[in-house]
Structures are given as C-alpha cells and as structure tokens.
Amino acid sequence: MANKNYYEILGLGNSASQDEIKKAFHKLAHKYHPDKKGGDEAKFKEINEAYQVLSDERKRRAYDTHGAGWNSGGEAPGGQAGGWDFSGFADAAGGPAFVAVEAANGSGKLPFTTAALENLFVTSSSFALG
Predict the structure, then answer these.
(1) Which long-range contacts does 118-121 make (Cβ < 8 Å, 24+ apart)?
(2) Is CATH 3.20.20.30 the classification given to domain 1-66?
(3) pLDDT tens digits for 11-37?
(4) In angstroms, what CA-CA distances link 36 with 40, 43, 46?
C-alpha cells in the first residue's frame, strides 16, 4: 500500500490511541462493509489493512519509523526479521542481550534488547536491498 497514510485512511492523527484506532476502524468497517447496501469492498480492505498495522504495536512502530515502505523488505512468518530468530541472544545472557559495541565516549558495552537487534537487522537488510 505504497504512498498511503494509514492514519488518514482511518481519519486519525498519528498520535491516536489504541482505543481511538479501534473505534475508528469499527465505525468505518461498518460503513463500508461489502455486504451492506452501498458498501465498498476496496475501501473496506484498505481500512482493514490500516487497522492491521496500527493496532499492532510492533507494526505501528515500524510504520511510524519507515512510513509507507515500512514492510518493503518483507516480514517473515512469525514476525522474525528475515527469518532470523534473535531470541537466543537474550536467553544466553539471562535477560536483555549485551553486544560488545564501543560507545562513543569509550564506556564499553551497550545493552541491546532482542527487539533492537531485530530492528537493526531489518533496517540493515532494507538498506542493503534498496
């Protein structure tokens, strides 16, 4: 759905709460449902797609960060970045993963959560793939 604004589709601002997103979706889905007289299947699908992204915190964060191309790199089944499972990093460390990265001020290791590693991988993959 390139160049479309999911917030605009639902008639919301980008600071909308999850409750506002849900209410807007239900109102518009009811209005445009294809089984109703005057319904619009294409509009209904567009509304549903917008809701599927904005109602999922992880997808919404990616959309807010990368805009319309948020999922251009593709998403692997199960939500893992490119099929890579980063959960072992956190498990091996007994909590948030610690990756040796030299901080700009020379302080040593910086903590990276599994989500941060996934985001780093997705961002790097998207950049490399264009």
Answers:
(1) 118/80, 118/81, 118/84, 118/86, 119/81, 121/81, 121/82, 121/84, 121/86
(2) no
(3) 999 999 999 999 999 999 999 999 998
(4) 9, 13, 16
Nearest Cα to Cα of residue 75 among 93, 94, 95, 52: 52
Q: What is the pLDDT of residue 19?
A: 96
Three-class SS state of 102 = coil
> Given the structure tokens 């239900």, which residue do they identify?
26
Residue length, the chain?
Answer: 130
Ranges of each domain in the chain: 1-66, 73-130
Query: CA 34 to CA 50: how far, in whole Å?
Result: 17
